[in-house]
Write a structure and sequence with these properties.
This protein is α/β, with parallel strands linked by helices. The chain contains 6 helices and 11 strands.
Length: about 190
């Protein structure tokens, strides 16, 4: 079951391990807001020490701004191979407004291939997988739970996609083909596909 809270108009999502009760964070909040993020986590009944792992739907500052802080906190942060190239561009934008921001030590990220994500998550007691959904940005992924819940990040809503937007249409077709039903966007309320 996916749980979430919202702060600064961005939803942050969590899956609880069936093995040890630890949390997988899906998206890692805004830069330089770690304690605010932790306070919001308490509103859904968890303390910050429950977060053991993190993935991000894409490397934009409202989704991955806390990755460096997470690593410093001992949280294992996974990065999918096609996301690596997007980190520097995000950090360049963050550093314009947040001089105190500490850049991500990429050597401390755990690189994963999206095709191997189901096996990885199963080893953590999390039931789901990741698929590449590059409709919003080339590094975007969606997380699909075995219960057909889908965290889509900033993928464009189905009802606003124009017929010639083959990239976004293909992403939604892929989500449908996996059986995705309950959709969790990052900046809107959940809906049924």
């Amino acid at each position: 079951m996916i749980e979430h809270f919202k702060y600064h108009n961005t939803n942050c999502f969590f899956m609880k391990s069936g093995t040890n009760g630890k949390l997988l964070a899906i998206d890692a909040g805004w830069p330089c807001t770690l304690y605010e993020y932790y306070r919001e986590l308490k509103t859904i009944g968890y303390s910050h020490d429950r977060i053991a792992w993190a993935v991000v739907t894409h490397f934009h500052m409202d989704h991955a701004g806390l990755v460096s802080a997470f690593i410093d906190e001992g949280i294992t942060c996974y990065v999918f191979e096609h996301q690596q190239e997007s980190i520097d561009a995000m950090e360049k934008i963050i550093l314009k407004n947040h001089k105190e921001y500490r850049t991500i030590d990429k050597r401390r990220l755990v690189s994963v291939n999206a095709e191997d994500s189901k096996e990885l998550f199963a080893s953590l007691g999390i039931h789901g997988t990741v698929i590449a959904t590059p409709g919003h940005s080339p590094d975007s992924i969606s997380f699909i739970s075995d219960e057909h819940e889908v965290i889509i990040g900033d993928l464009a809503p189905v009802n606003v996609i124009l017929p010639d937007d083959v990239n976004n249409l293909a992403c939604w077709e892929l989500i449908r083909s996996t059986g995705g039903k309950q959709i969790y966007p990052s900046h809107a309320e959940p809906f049924v596909l």
